[in-house]
Amino acid sequence: MTTIKPNPKVDEFLSKAKTWKAEYEVLRTIALDSGLTEEFKWMHPCYTLDNKNVFLIHGFKEYCALLFHKGALLKDPKGILIQQTENVQAARQIRFTNVHEIIEMESDLKAYIEQAIEVEKAGLTVAFKKKEDFDIPEELQTKFNELPALKIAFEALTPGRQRAYIYYFSQAKQAKTRLSRIEKYTQQILDGKGMND
After folding, report:
1. I need a surface site. Which of 17, 18, 74, 102 has the fewest CB within 10 A?
2. In the prediction, which pLDDT does 2 show?
3. What does the DSSP 8-state code read for residue 72?
4. Strands of the chain, DSSP E
């Protein structure tokens, strides 16, 4: 593996990091050995091959992580890849709570990174569930019947935006919560926007 040139935006990110600073620095050192291009995307260090995202470094309150964009395609002999939520189809994380874990796992991390690079070089893609594979919540179907324009607007959204809405609405355990979520986003759907637009 050849070391790559550090990105000044990542230098700036690290200099301002209030949490996980030591962990980020060790992860970055490992990442720089990968031969990938270091970029700064979504406010995090991201490592790419021919402009395709391979993995990124990010942190949360409880942990920091390496996130592999096509992690679902990786073999996981160490059993360390984590699916962030049940709705995440492609990405997988390796999580850390202290710098010593990262140092102890360095050779494993490099092996997983190398595997992720091979997946990208081979042009492999994750087979996403289609919108049809998800049940439309009964409350949304009722709303479509009441407001046909909503159904038309919903079907005009990209499949990814449709999936995101279906996930979000379906996750609520109670019918009243599902209904309230649908009400909250009705106008946004009518405006042709996704949840995060």
Report:
1. 18
2. 57
3. G
4. 37-41, 44-49, 52-59, 64-68, 92-96
Instruction: Check whether residue 40 and residue 86 sit in a common domain.
Output: yes
Q: For residues 35 and 100, state if they share a domain.
A: yes
- 84, with CB counted inside 10 A (0-12, 13-18, 19+), is middle
- Cβ atoms 87, 42 nearer than 8 A: no
Neighbouring residues of 180: CB distance < 8 A, sequence distance ≥ 6: none
Sign for the pseudo-dihedral over CA of 17, 19, 21, 26: negative
Domain hosting 165: range is 131-190
**What residues contact 194, with CB distance under 8 A and at least 6 apart?**
157, 158, 160, 161, 164, 165, 188
CATH of residue 61's domain is 3.90.1150
pTM: 0.68
Distances (CA, A) of 154 to 1, 83, 166, 190: 46, 28, 10, 7
> Does residue 139 sit in the same domain as residue 114?
no
Phi and psi at 176, nearest 5°, equal: -65, -35
User: Hey, CA dihedral for 56, 123, 107, 33, is it positive or negative?
Assistant: negative
Note whether residue 179 is domain-resident: yes
Q: What is the pLDDT of residues 143-192, one digit of tens each?
A: 999 998 998 999 888 888 888 898 889 888 898 999 999 999 999 999 99
Q: In this structure, are 62 and 12 located in the same domain?
A: yes
Residue listed under structure tokens 């009243």: 176
